[in-house]
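Entry 12.
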Amino acid sequence: AFVSFLCDFITSTLNNFNLILNNDIGTITFYSQVNNNSNLTKLDTSLNIIYAKEYDSISWWQAINRNIITSLFDGYILSGGKNILTPLIVNIDSIGNVKWSRYFLPLQGGIQDIIQTQDSGFVIAANFKTAGASLIRTDNNGNLLWSKSYFRPHGYIHNVLENTDGSLIITGNIDSSYTTSPLFFVKLNNAGNVIWAKSFGDSVNMIRNVISDTKHTKNGGYITLTTIAKTGLLDDLLLIKTDANGDTLWLRAHGSDRSYEYSQSVEQLNDKGYIVCGISNGGWGLGCVY
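Predicted 3D structure (tokens):
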């Protein structure tokens, strides 16, 4: 009942949102766009508002909109932009006040993912004009340590993960100038240099240039949810399970022959199954499947 109530609240209240469920302390935090302003809303599990903050100086530019919120020990990191094209990260404390913000000039593009690394710094996955899929690494105060780009000029990054040994995994589309392109799966060392690179998709099994999501699995591999293109735009969700070296263990397509499904996110459950979420029927609905 709570999940149903929460879904009703989301669809009736928020547009273009991301959320964090803090099960240990019983709170839900939404980072959303409402009336062209950025909003951070924290609720208890009865959906009573603990606090609501509006940030009129944070806006977005992203071809695939992702309003990124990353949970920290004492607050959050939010993504945004300045003057339409300049990427921005903002450190918010536990009650929603701004601690610091960092712009990345002269870069132009949009942020797709942010993780906090084991050394308490951050790795930011972004897509930049002319530079393609890119990573920015900062210290714990958001100061730039290095930046690297991959698959220039049209690579489009979706996710970044950190492994226990400090290495990184990035995923995304190789060429965003087309409606479909292979999905890249790349392992990097902690300086952003390539260890190995794999790709999924070909002229028969085409991967749609929409959001994909990659997570660690409990056996040390990875699970990726993406979208496989079909005739007549009746696309399906595609799950790709790989081992720790990025080699495919299995693939599973899920979808209806009468509608299209676009990927959003995937999580592994305690029983080692998966829950996948996506958009169906032209963006009319968001659904999750166990």
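Annotation: The chain is about 5% helix and 55% strand. The longest strand covers residues 15-22.
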